[in-house]
């Protein structure tokens, strides 16, 4: 009875707001930004427990359009702009095999995935159709995590390996027959006692051997950049290390900037087992596996990050503010500053009101910036709602809704898997105006990201459920981005670092907490002018980082940020 009454009240409020002729859907059909994790129709696993999964991505450009393949996805995705994606299904490919790899040879795409020998390799010249033919049915090497790499001289190489004791391998292939040329060559193995990023654990603090896996090769100005993933897909610390060689078969030497891709903290973490590609303007991108790993170790998502070669050929992935909105460029860019939309996080730890909640999933979990926790209403009924008070009028530019899918019993793909909702904003918590009307939506949007056509000013944001495909109405985080219309924080004071002498893979950082800062972004690297690593924390005044190379010197600085902007650090501190 209470639920029915609540639904009537919300419906009446919505009807009253619709009566105002000036009110319209503010969501933007001409989207220019994205926000990680990517809002893809991640498939539900075919096995219990019910959870979504996508990982180990390969993304290639073929005839000026983009094709994205990922483990256990029941299909692959196509895009013309890296913003919107449509799913392509195929009965020809082994889409239940892990870590698919795709390479463009002449006018054809070739596909293979992990498996026991003999492995089948497939080909197509029309991937939009979902029709693939067999290119080779008896590839003799059983392997995990393959990467096919075509050199610019037309020679083809296969990198592979996924083990906590064996190395990454490479073997040359004939580009027409796909027969091996020579024997496999060992590239490298783990050195976790020296390389902190190879230590297992969310915070690189577990002693077991890491998994060395997910090889990917990129060539740049005559050098071969061999990327690999460590220490394990279920950890926040999941990252990509880097070795470099003058030859695709090695020998390989450790790059001075390691890991080359890492996102250890934030709303969603991890930036490992990736593929690197260029867009149609020549910009480099890195699409990576990101972890949730709560319902199951392999509960994962995908993130897209800009990647750069600096003037000295140093390769790095920019993951600073890597789950905030950023621009997908329509030109060649020079650096990451050109991508940041300048929309700050407004919703962190703000007051929340809800229609109902489960004891184990309270409303505060919807604003804690942690995808591993979530708020859940007591039901999945129409009319369940959540409202956030930003505590003052703010400029709102974008909203990301991360559905948590609590108590689902969904498996595979189904056209009935979609969310329907109403998103509104208000100045006084009484009169509501529309941000987005998705009450008739029939598409699967598990991480729905809404860029507004024009910014609005408001204090309250309310999300009302009209349909969930199963389970309860639950949200990992309702994330609101824009500007608080105030001052940026003061510069951080008393930034102190201490490198642990008994284990130089570890450094301890401490600083004076600024009263007007929401969080801090620590930038560091092995050269004072190359601070390419980012470690972002919220509401903290200390941090321990255990991902260093024991044999290298490091330099650090710290930025403060709040709802109004970022105050970059200017003092660089070195730890020898």
Overview features:
Jelly Rolls, 42% strand, Immunoglobulin-like, 576 residues, disordered N terminus
CATH superfamily of the largest domain: Glycosyl hydrolase domain, family 43
Low-confidence stretches: 1-23
Strand element count: 40
Largest sheet: 8 strands, antiparallel
The CATH topology of the largest domain is given as Tachylectin-2, Chain A
The CATH class of the largest domain: Mainly Beta
Descriptive overview:
This protein is mainly beta and 576 residues long. The chain has 3 domains: 2-30 and 344-483, Sandwich (Jelly Rolls), CATH 2.60.120.260; 33-322 and 333-338, 5 Propeller (Tachylectin-2, Chain A), CATH 2.115.10.20; 493-575, Immunoglobulins (Immunoglobulin-like, Sandwich). The protein contains 1 helix and 40 strands. Strands 25, 26, 27, 28, 29, 30, 31 and 32 form an 8-stranded antiparallel β-sheet that branches. Strands 12, 15, 16, 17, 18 and 19 form a 6-stranded antiparallel β-sheet that branches. Strand 7 (108-112) and strand 8 form a beta hairpin.
Quick structural overview:
By secondary structure, the chain is mainly β.
Strand and helix map with partners:
Elements: H1 2-18, E1 33-34, E2 58-62, E3 65-69, E4 76-79, E5 86-88, E6 101-105, E7 108-112, E8 119-124, E9 133-139, E10 147-150, E11 156-160, E12 162-163, E13 168-173, E14 180-188, E15 212-220, E16 223-230, E17 239-245, E18 253-254, E19 261-262, E20 269-278, E21 284-291, E22 300-309, E23 315-317, E24 326-327, E25 344-345, E26 352-354, E27 375-376, E28 385-403, E29 420-426, E30 432-438, E31 447-467, E32 474-483, E33 493-499, E34 507-512, E35 519-525, E36 533-538, E37 542-545, E38 554-561, E39 566-567, E40 573-575
């Amino acid at each position: 009875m209470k639920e029915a009454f609540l639904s009537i009240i919300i419906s009446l409020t919505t009807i009253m707001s619709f009566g105002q002729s000036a009110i319209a859907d503010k969501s933007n059909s001409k989207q220019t930004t994205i926000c990680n994790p990517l809002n893809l129709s991640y498939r539900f696993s075919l096995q219990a427990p019910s959870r979504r999964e996508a990982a180990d991505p390969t993304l290639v450009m073929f005839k000026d359009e983009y094709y994205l393949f990922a483990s256990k996805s029941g299909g692959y995705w196509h895009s013309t702009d890296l913003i919107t994606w449509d799913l392509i299904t195929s009965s020809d490919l082994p889409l239940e095999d892990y870590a698919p790899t795709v390479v463009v040879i002449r006018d054809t795409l070739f596909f293979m995935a992990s498996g026991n020998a003999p492995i089948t390799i497939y080909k197509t010249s029309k991937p939009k159709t979902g029709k693939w033919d067999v290119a080779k049915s008896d590839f003799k090497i059983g392997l995990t995590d393959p990467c096919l790499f075509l050199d610019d001289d037309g020679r083809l190489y296969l990198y592979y390996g996924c083990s906590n004791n064996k190395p990454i391998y490479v073997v040359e292939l004939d580009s027409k027959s796909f027969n091996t040329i020579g024997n496999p060559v060992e590239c490298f193995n783990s050195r976790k006692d020296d390389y902190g990023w190879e230590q297992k654990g969310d915070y690189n603090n577990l002693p077991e051997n890491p998994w060395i896996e997910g090889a990917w090769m990129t060539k740049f100005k005559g050098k071969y950049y061999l990327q690999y993933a460590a220490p394990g897909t279920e950890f926040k610390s999941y990252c990509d290390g880097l070795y470099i060689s003058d030859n695709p078969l090695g020998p390989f030497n450790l790059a001075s900037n390691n890991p080359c891709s890492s996102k250890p903290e934030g709303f969603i973490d991890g930036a490992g087992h990736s593929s690197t590609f260029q867009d149609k303007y020549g910009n480099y991108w890195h699409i990576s596996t990101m972890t949730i790993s709560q319902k199951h170790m392999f509960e994962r998502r995908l993130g897209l990050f800009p990647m750069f070669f600096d003037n000295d050929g140093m390769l790095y992935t920019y993951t600073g503010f890597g789950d905030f909105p950023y621009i997908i460029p329509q030109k060649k860019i020079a650096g990451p500053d050109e991508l940041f939309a300048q929309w700050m996080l407004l919703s962190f730890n703000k007051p929340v009101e809800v229609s109902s909640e489960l004891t184990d999933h309270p409303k505060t979990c919807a604003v804690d910036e942690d995808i591993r926790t979530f708020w859940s209403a007591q039901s999945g009924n129409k009319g369940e709602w959540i409202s956030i008070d930003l505590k003052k009028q703010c400029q709102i530019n974008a909203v990301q809704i991360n559905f948590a899918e609590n108590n689902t019993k969904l498996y595979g793909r189904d056209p009935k898997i979609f969310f329907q909702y109403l998103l509104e904003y208000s100045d006084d918590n009484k009169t509501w105006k529309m941000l987005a009307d998705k009450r008739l939506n029939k598409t699967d949007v598990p991480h729905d990201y809404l860029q507004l056509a024009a910014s609005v000013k408001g204090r309250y944001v309310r999300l009302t459920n009209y349909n969930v495909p199963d389970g309860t109405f639950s949200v990992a985080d309702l994330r609101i981005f824009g500007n608080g219309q105030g001052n940026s924080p003061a510069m951080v004071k008393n930034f102190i670092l201490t490198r642990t002498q008994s284990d130089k893979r570890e450094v301890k950082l401490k600083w004076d907490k600024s009263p007007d800062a929401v969080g801090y972004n620590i930038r560091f690297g092995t050269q004072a002018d190359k601070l390419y690593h980012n470690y972002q924390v919220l509401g903290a005044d200390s941090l321990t980082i255990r991902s260093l190379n024991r044999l290298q010197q490091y330099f650090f600085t710290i930025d403060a940020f709040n709802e109004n902007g970022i105050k970059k650090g200017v003092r660089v501190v070195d730890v020898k």
